[in-house]
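Page 47, continued from p. 46.
Same chain as before, 158 aa.
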Amino acid sequence: MQLYIMRHGQANPVGNIDHLRELTSTGYNEAQCMGKWVNQQGISFLQVFVSPYVRAQQTANTLLNEFNGQVQVATIDFITPLDDAKKVHDYIDGICTDTHIEHLIIVSHMPLVSYLVETLTIDRQSPIFQTAAIAQIDYDVEKMTGRLVRLIAPADLA
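Result:
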């Protein structure tokens, strides 16, 4: 399975309530840029897991606007910034044993996205994600671990 972990696009830095912070115009452009890149790569997601935070929802919607076809979007309450990467790893493994998924993307936040890459990969790298960056993990469902293939950000595509 190819597992993609994406950080949300640039969000407004100020907000009284963190989960309500919205994307900036740059954040929308970043998400759109990454959606075009994913589409150019020929990647077709059937499943998207997204944080309930507004900026992650906006990123996922903007990303998915670049695709044709049906994509199942699931809002997952425990993929917010400070949630437990091990719990998310266990959830992914549970989903993968029940269904066959070729490509899955998770849209979330720092620091969780960094910890997820560390938890899900053999070499336990913990990269710092730029806004709207996507890490690709070649994930072995049977071994329940994977290998970081690449980390790409909108700035890499400019």
